Amino acid sequence: MTTMTRRPASLLLALALTGAACSKTPDTAAGNAAPLAQAIGPQNIAVARNDTLRSGPAISGTLAADREARIRAEIAGAVLQTFAEQGERVSAGMVLARIDDANVRDAELSARSAVAQATVAAGQAARELQRATTLAAAGAIAERDVEGAERASLGAQAQLADAKARLSSAEKNLRNTMVRAPFAGVVSERAVSPGDIVAPGAALFTVIDPRSLRVEAAVPTSALADVRVGAPVLFTVNGSDRVLEGRVTRVSPMVDPQTKQVRLLASVPNQAGALVAGLFVEGRVASEKRVGVMIPENAVDQTGIVSIVMRLKGGKVEKVEVQLGVRDEAASMFEITSGIASGDTVLMGAARGISVGSPVVVSAPRDATPAPAAAPAKQN
């Protein structure tokens, strides 16, 4: 009776241990399995590389035409006709507008007649002087008669000179009724229309040469030592990420009393006409240039005491302390003086939050074309 009671008990214990062992097997296997690799896109990584680093004081300003002419009226009158519109290209000497020349033409004709009369009078006075000189030599007239002839000749010559000056002024006024472009360029502004009455000094047109622009900017006085004539200026215009380059041509010898900054001008070639005057620009004077290991700015964590970079090495993430050098503001890059080397892969943006030691794989871009499948083997 006792033996029969023990056997069911031992049998139940064996079954319980077997069930327990079976129930622990999946969990143990799952705990020993390798963690799954996290997939990130190629936009979340960057490769450190040796590149040229440029740094210097930051600037902001506007683009302006290096050659600009504000054409104003030189005579009074009514605008009869205009021959150029805003944005139109013009050649040097091209007529832009015509001002009524009726009064000016009458004045020119009157001045021309006065010159003709003065020329005749001067010639007559010169002949009288010559005759008087001859007679005085022969003793036929007194010396005072010769002096009178000399005074008459000088007066006639003065009247002739005055008449010629009035004619020159009248001819100039007549020419000024035809408003011409001073150089080849583009009309940036037209301030008059046919029928307008203009006075001397009234604005008519503005012509600029778009082939050469200039950056008008300012730098703080603390950075004046880093600015010199001929230094490159790297900048971008609003609405574009393209980095453009110019050269400092002039630095103001005095500080602006309002901004407490020093103004500078930098020439910008624009032969292709891709830029237009009036754009806002931001950049810097590239006063320093050297080669170093560069990584994007958003790959560096600067929230702590030391700067941290998450590096991808051997397919796993590791944390690396780095020493930062100079910051390239235009390119949004940092120079790394220690911690990583050229060729290292670093994580950027949200990928920096991946835990240390986690395996990572970089997925191919969505628009990548898959490799063609191999052709099936022919069966004999």
Can you offer a commentary on this structure?
- The protein is of the alpha+beta class and 380 residues long.
- It folds into four domains: 88 residues, conserved putative lor/sdh protein from methanococcus maripaludis s2 fold, CATH 2.40.420.20; 87 residues, Elongation Factor Tu (Ef-tu), domain 3 (Beta Barrel); 62 residues, OB fold (Dihydrolipoamide Acetyltransferase, E2P); 74 residues, Helix Hairpins (Orthogonal Bundle), CATH 1.10.287.
- The strands form five sheets. Strands 2-22-19-20-21-18-3 form a seven-stranded antiparallel β-sheet, with no helix packed on it. It has a six-stranded antiparallel β-barrel with strand order 4-13-16-15-14-17. A four-stranded antiparallel β-sheet has the order 5-12-10-7, with no helix packed on it.
- Helix 2 packs antiparallel against helix 3.
- The longest helix has 37 residues.
- The radius of gyration is 44 Å and the shape is elongated.
Summarize the structure.
It is built from three helices and 23 strands. The protein is α+β, with helices and mostly antiparallel strands. The protein folds into four domains: 88 residues, conserved putative lor/sdh protein from methanococcus maripaludis s2 fold; 87 residues, Elongation Factor Tu (Ef-tu), domain 3; 62 residues, RNA polymerase II/Efflux pump adaptor protein, barrel-sandwich hybrid domain (OB fold (Dihydrolipoamide Acetyltransferase, E2P), Beta Barrel); 74 residues, Helix Hairpins (Orthogonal Bundle).
Please give the structural blueprint.
Elements: H1 2-32, E1 38-40, E2 45-47, E3 49-55, E4 58-65, E5 68-72, E6 77-82, E7 89-90, E8 95-99, H2 102-138, H3 143-176, E9 178-180, E10 185-190, E11 197-198, E12 203-208, E13 212-220, E14 232-237, E15 244-251, E16 261-269, E17 280-285, E18 288-296, E19 307-313, E20 316-328, E21 333-338, E22 345-347, E23 360-362
Parallel strand pairs: 1-23
Antiparallel strand pairs: 2-22, 3-18, 4-13, 4-17, 5-12, 6-8, 6-11, 7-10, 8-9, 10-12, 13-16, 14-15, 14-17, 15-16, 18-21, 19-20, 19-22, 20-21
Helix pairs in contact: 2-3
